[in-house]
Design goal:
Distance between the termini: 11 Å
Number of domains: 2
Low-confidence stretches: 1-38
Largest sheet: 9 strands, mixed
Strand order of the largest sheet: 14-13-12-11-7-10-9-8-15
CATH superfamily of the largest domain: Dihydrodipicolinate Reductase, domain 2
Mean pLDDT: 92
Strand content: 15-25%
Structural class: alpha/beta
């Protein structure tokens, strides 16, 4: 199939018109959520939280959840912990007096946590498992805080979207770890942008240019391919999605929020020049995204040592510009005068208030799926050197990364480092 067939032609949609429609729909959903909530713990005044994935991010999210609970005087109990390695689960549960019989190991640890009597799950295993864990969480009728990204391939995106619809039908709370969406300053900034403060968006850029992120754990005698790769999950595309997906998703998410939608296509270049440790991900990506109104956004991310770092976003409109944080420049200049709390805590405040019925209802599953898939779309383009449309990627691509059997340690040879022009687009 030629590239031209992958890039659909369509009539540009006004960003403001799109946002008016989506805002009305969102208000209706929020109102419905405030009327009826799923009981969080029948017969109990405590929200019982289960942790799936007991590494650094999982333990950090657990602390943030408890700090949030304290700030709003919510009764939250860390109830169960699960990880591939049982000793990690026990170590994560120990500070919270989680009994060892509610600390689970193995590839079915998430099922055991779900069956332990929890009301809410924090899921923070490597991203390659998110599209397995989240649907199981929603099927079990549990509220969910899920770390970003939520997919590493089109298959995972579609799985999360189905789970999003199921969560909506069950009125479950789902909050994602894209914490910028929960900062008061950014919310006020984006509201003003959506109300036309910088006019129609005509372009923008986003960056996550920083130093290397590595998990270089040695391979011991008898360790299988899969176990070693999961221990070094940031080195492999099937476990982390590459750093454009795992890390720059924060910045890409801000751009999608500003435009009120995902892009129509991506075209990028990238490569691997300085990553010395094993793995197959790139260390730099540069992608041009085209949005439905024709605006083009440049995305840059890199993991190079001893280089100038830049992390942030910028939107350009017909009446001004904004870094999408706490200010606007141009005809309607503005500067945020309020106060933010730690966003990693605020997202848990919002999650808990949603569960308790004390605030707006949140179901961010599709929203974060679209931002994650936008990053995946960029990576698919940089790996293959092809311009790729959103519709082709989510409807026709058969890409599903990782071993066919994700239920056991064993042999698995990942694809080699991608070479644009040689790596197949599937």
């Amino acid at each position: 199939m030629s590239d031209s067939k992958r890039i659909p032609t369509s009539k540009p949609v006004s960003r403001r018109s799109f946002l008016r429609g989506s805002a009305a729909a969102g208000a209706a959903v929020m109102a419905a959520g405030l009327v009826s909530r799923v009981a969080y713990a029948a017969g109990s005044d405590a929200i019982k939280v289960g942790l799936i994935g007991c590494g650094g991010r999982g333990k950090g999210a657990t602390k943030d959840c408890l700090e949030a609970a304290k700030s709003i005087q919510a009764n939250v109990q860390i109830w169960a912990c699960g990880d591939l390695w049982e000793d990690r689960a026990k170590a994560a549960g120990k500070p919270y007096n989680v009994p060892e019989d509610r600390c689970f190991g193995g590839f079915d640890n998430h099922d055991k946590v779900l069956a332990s009597g929890v009301d809410m799950i924090i899921t923070a295993a490597p991203p390659g498992f998110r599209a397995i864990h989240v649907p199981a969480i929603i099927k079990a009728g549990k509220h969910c805080f899920m770390e970003k990204p939520v997919c590493v391939d089109p298959w995972g995106y579609n799985e999360i979207c189905k789970a999003a619809d199921e969560a909506k039908a069950k009125k479950l709370t789902v909050v994602a770890g894209t914490q910028r969406r929960h900062e008061t300053s950014r919310r006020e900034c984006l509201k003003r942008i959506h109300d036309g403060a910088i006019g129609e968006l005509v372009g923008g850029e986003c960056y996550w240019r920083g130093g290397p992120v590595t998990h270089n754990r040695p391979r011991t005698d008898g360790m299988s391919d899969i176990e070693w790769q999961i221990l070094n999950w940031y080195a492999w595309c099937w476990t982390c999605g590459d750093h454009i997906v795992e890390q720059e998703v924060h910045n890409i998410d801000m751009i999608c929020w500003a435009f009120g939608t995902h892009p129509e296509s991506a075209y990028g270049i990238g490569g691997r020049q300085s990553r010395p440790e094993p793995g197959n991900i790139y260390d730099h990506h540069a992608v041009e995204y085209v949005f439905p109104n024709g605006a083009r956004v440049a995305s840059y991310c890199s993991h190079f040592p001893k280089t100038t770092n830049r992390i942030g976003e910028r939107a350009v409109g017909t009446k001004g510009t904004s870094m999408l944080s706490n200010s606007i420049e141009g005809e309607n200049a503005w500067k945020f005068q309020g106060k933010d709390i730690k966003p990693q805590v605020q997202e848990h405040v919002d999650c808990l208030n949603s569960i308790l019925g004390k605030g707006p209802h949140y179901n961010e599953a599709r929203q974060v799926a679209e931002s994650s898939m936008t990053a995946v779309l960029g990576r698919m383009s940089t790996y293959t050197g092809r311009q790729i449309s959103w519709d082709w990627a989510v409807q026709k691509s058969t890409l599903k990364l990782g071993p066919a059997n994700r239920n056991a340690f064993g042999p698995y040879e990942p694809p080699p480092v991608a070479i644009p022009g040689e790596t197949e687009l599937i």
